[in-house]
Design goal:
This protein has six helices and two strands; from the N terminus they run H-E-H-E-H-H-H-H. The chain is mainly α. A two-stranded parallel sheet has the order 1-2. It is elongated, with a radius of gyration of 19 Å.
Length: 142
Amino acid sequence: MEQQGLQRSLERVQEFVEVETLVTDRHVGINKMIRVQHPLITHLFDIWHVAKSLKKKLQALSRRSGCQMVRPWIGSIINHLYWAVISTADENKDLAVAKWRSVIQHVHNKHVFQGLFPMCAHGPLEGRELQKPWLSPCENIF
């Protein structure tokens, strides 16, 4: 039903304006519909839905044996996802991805690294950020 509503709405709106970009939740049917029936529309996912899904996965991971150290980092990882997307211009998707991936280095206490985004953007860590235990590489995650 959600997919049909969107299809009707798109048809109606496109009578008056050209839709270049559409932001939706991560509905599989809508994703396919836009890809197949509207290939000229750029389809983006609402960051809130992406963050919600990631948070659930991180919480599940933190309940696994040997991975409890992830729990204190969940909020910071989700905040980092929002920051990576919001702080980057739309046309620079590669930089947004590089910023997002830098969180892996940060949680391992590495703040200078290689790539398009070569160092963390934060200043000296203070307060609660110093209280979190740094993570070590874990082979049993997957």
